[in-house]
Task: inverse folding
């Protein structure tokens, strides 16, 4: 089983739609959680951190459920510019100290006019 | 803004060559990472370092080594390049629990 698993996608949605991405992680000792966005042929960029209390940044809402080991990202009122791959990311405590950062395979989103 | 600089954007090397990929960050971050990204496989962790002279193997360390002699610089070394190491290599740095910044990547082709 992969350490971080995401919906395979791709998601094809019209402009203005609400879209939700899901992610599960296997290591219960995971410490911190993030969503990244990656545009075609570009490097990943941090979108937002994910907290147990849930957090919102404009049209984006992230949720963490530690008991279920589940992370979500909700995008409201989708824009064409939201088209990208969304990566779920988990920090896991490494054996000798420090943290190992593990990326999900990503979910591709296409927003159409 | 944090800047993570990778020495080359595109690189072509011959099989058997020793290859050095350099990464420099300007924000005094303790954590640095090397990933490779291949179509259909996503980002896979090669090595990471959480302090100077410290290094830990990631998920696919075979055929690679790293060096972190100074906090700002993390080098990835391909001891003897092979065609299956043709890939996009991405370096990242950051502080734990705050997310990381990536360099723009090095597209390496081994012929």
Result:
């Amino acid at each position: 089983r992969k350490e971080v698993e995401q919906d395979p996608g791709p998601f094809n949605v019209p402009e203005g739609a609400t879209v939700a991405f899901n992610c599960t992680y296997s290591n219960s000792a995971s410490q911190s959680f993030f969503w990244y966005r990656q545009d075609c042929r570009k490097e990943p960029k941090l979108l937002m951190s994910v907290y147990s209390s849930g957090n919102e940044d404009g049209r984006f809402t992230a949720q963490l459920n530690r008991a279920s080991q589940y992370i979500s990202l909700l995008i409201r009122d989708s824009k064409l510019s939201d088209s990208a791959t969304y990566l779920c990311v988990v920090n896991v405590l490494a054996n000798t100290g420090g943290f190992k950062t593990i990326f999900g395979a990503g979910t591709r989103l296409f927003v159409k006019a | 803004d944090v800047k993570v600089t990778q020495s080359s954007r595109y690189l072509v090397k011959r099989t058997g060559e020793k290859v050095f990929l350099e990464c420099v960050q300007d924000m005094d971050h303790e954590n640095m990472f090397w990933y490779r990204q291949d179509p259909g496989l996503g980002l896979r962790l090669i090595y990471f370092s959480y302090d100077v002279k410290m290094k830990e193997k990631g998920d696919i360390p075979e055929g690679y080594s790293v060096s972190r002699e100074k906090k700002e610089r993390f080098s990835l070394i391909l001891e003897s390049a092979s065609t299956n190491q043709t890939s996009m290599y991405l370096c990242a740095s950051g502080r734990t629990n705050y997310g990381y910044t990536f360099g723009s990547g090095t597209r390496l082709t081994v012929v």
